[in-house]
């Protein structure tokens, strides 16, 4: 049986996944400040980024002309 802490941890992980998907789908990349710690190292494609670099990369990669719509929230 899971402890209360383990249940809480699992719920927080699920919430973080939801928050990440929502931020990307809504293209509100500043919401990622609530998902990633300031010193996070984030891997996209074949590159490592800090949090601010990752947000900038997403802004450039997912601009409206290239990709529209929602993908995680269906």
Automatic annotation (TrEMBL):
Residues 5-72 form the SnoaL-like domain. Pfam families: SnoaL_4. Gene3D superfamilies: 3.10.450.50. This is Nuclear transport factor 2 family protein. It comes from Sediminihaliea albiluteola. The lineage of its organism: Bacteria, Pseudomonadati, Pseudomonadota, Gammaproteobacteria, Cellvibrionales.
């Amino acid at each position: 049986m899971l402890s209360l802490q383990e249940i809480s941890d699992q719920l927080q992980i699920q919430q973080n996944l939801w928050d990440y998907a929502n931020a990307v789908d809504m293209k509100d990349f500043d919401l990622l400040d609530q998902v990633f710690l300031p010193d996070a190292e984030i891997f996209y494609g074949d590159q490592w980024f800090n949090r601010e670099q990752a947000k900038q990369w997403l802004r450039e990669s997912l601009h409206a002309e290239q990709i529209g719509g929602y993908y995680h929230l269906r």
